Amino acid sequence: MAVGARSGHEEPEDRPGPPVGGEGTEASDSGWSDGPGKDGGQHRAGDRQNGPDGPDGLDEDDRDGENTGHSGPKKQRSFWKELPLLIGIALVLALLIKTFLVQAFSIPSDSMQDTLQRGDRVLVDKLTPWFGSEPERGDVVVFHDPGGWLEGEPTPTPNVAQKFLSFIGLMPSAEEKDLIKRVIAIGGDTVSCKKGGPVVVNGKALSEKSFIFPGNTPCDDQPFGPIHVPKGRIWVMGDHRQDSLDSRYHQQLPGGGTVSTKEVVGRAFVVAWPVDRWSWLGVPGTFDQKGINAAGAVAPGALGLAGALPLVIRRRRKLTRDGTAG
Question: Which residues are catalytic?
Answer without folding.
Answer: 111, 181
